[in-house]
Amino acid sequence: MLFKDIITDSRIHQHLTSSADKGRIAHAQLFVGPEGSGKLMTALTYAQYVLCGNKNGENYPVESACNLKCQAITHPDMHFAFPVSNSDKVKSHAISDNYISEWRNFLKEQPYGNLFDWYQSIGIEKKQGQIGVDEAHNIVKKLTLKSYEGGYKVMIIWMAEALNTSASNKLLKLIEEPPEKTLFILITENLDQILQTIKSRCQIVQFSKLTQEKIKNSLVQNGLNDKEATIIAHESDGNYNKALDLMNQDSEDLIFEKWFVEWVRTAF
Question: What pLDDT band is residue 259 in, cutting at 50, 70 and 90?
Answer without folding.
Answer: low
